[in-house]
């Protein structure tokens, strides 16, 4: 049986949710249309989607607060689709955990490509069986941290888990699997979002800042993830598997 991937579209304009439902439904997705934050939370509780398309401009509601609630309680993709194209709104959207930010008016084909990119990142592909001796450890240790790439978990030396957004996890994985190497912003953007960045794309800088607040003892004086001026970022500590 072919199980369709479930997507939710939250927008106060019914014509937009219907447009997206029709287009994405024809692409093989199962779509739920909701028009308020309350309706979305009710949907999440009974039939959580794999990804949410969230409009920020909801009458009487704070779209950023809805995004924060999603990130705190559910592991799902989150793409903000909004008419608010101000750079500050984009930065805040990424800071609250959005996987991507699309401004209206949007091209349906581009939006579909972005949705697919996010779904690829949050749904690891099925791997063919391998002999036990050939299996690589999914646990990577660095500094006082332990990253489990299969379980998508980051725990500290006491065994306490630190919550990461999808983007933060993908970014940390890229750094931890390339220790001691300077990784450019373009490399990290492609590794985490499946696309190249423009000359003014500061997405990675925003996510690095968020990540440092979670893994660094002093985020203002980072010792784990360091900046290399004009080149990118590097994970300094030694990484051990197992």
UniProtKB/TrEMBL annotation:
Keywords assigned by UniProt, alphabetized: DNA-binding, Phosphoprotein
SMART domains registered for this protein in UniProt: REC, Trans_reg_C
Pfam families the record matches: Response_reg (PF00072), Trans_reg_C (PF00486)
Top-level division of the source organism's lineage: Bacteria
Region forming the signal peptide: none
The entry's DNA-binding region: 137-237
Chain positions with 4-aspartylphosphate modification: 55
UniProt entry tagged with the keyword Phosphoprotein: yes
Residues of the Response regulatory domain: 6-119
Record's keyword annotation contains DNA-binding: yes
This protein's name: Winged helix-turn-helix domain-containing protein
Organism: Variovorax rhizosphaerae
């Amino acid at each position: 049986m072919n199980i369709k991937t479930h997507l939710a579209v939250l927008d106060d304009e019914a014509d937009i949710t219907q447009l997206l439902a029709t287009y994405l439904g024809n692409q093989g997705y199962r779509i739920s249309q909701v028009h308020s934050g309350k309706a979305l939370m009710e949907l999440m509780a009974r039939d959580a989607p794999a990804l949410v398309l969230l409009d920020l401009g909801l009458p009487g509601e704070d779209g950023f607060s809805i995004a924060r609630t999603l990130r705190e309680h559910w592991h799902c993709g989150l793409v903000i689709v909004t008419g608010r194209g101000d750079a500050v709104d984009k930065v805040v959207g990424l800071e609250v955990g959005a996987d991507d930010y699309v401004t209206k008016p949007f091209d349906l084909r581009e939006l579909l490509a972005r949705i697919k990119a996010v779904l690829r990142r949050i749904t690891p592909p099925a791997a063919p069986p391998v002999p036990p001796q050939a299996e690589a450890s999914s646990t990577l240790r660095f500094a006082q941290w332990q990253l489990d790439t299969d379980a998508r978990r980051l725990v500290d030396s006491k065994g306490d888990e630190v919550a990461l957004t999808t983007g933060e996890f993908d970014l940390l994985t890229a750094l931890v699997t390339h220790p001691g190497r300077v990784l450019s912003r373009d490399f990290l953007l492609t590794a985490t979002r499946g696309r190249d960045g423009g000359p003014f794309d500061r997405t990675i800088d925003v996510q690095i800042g968020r990540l440092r607040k979670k893994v660094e003892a002093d985020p203002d004086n980072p010792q784990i993830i360091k900046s290399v001026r004009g080149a990118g970022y590097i994970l300094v500590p030694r990484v051990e598997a197992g």
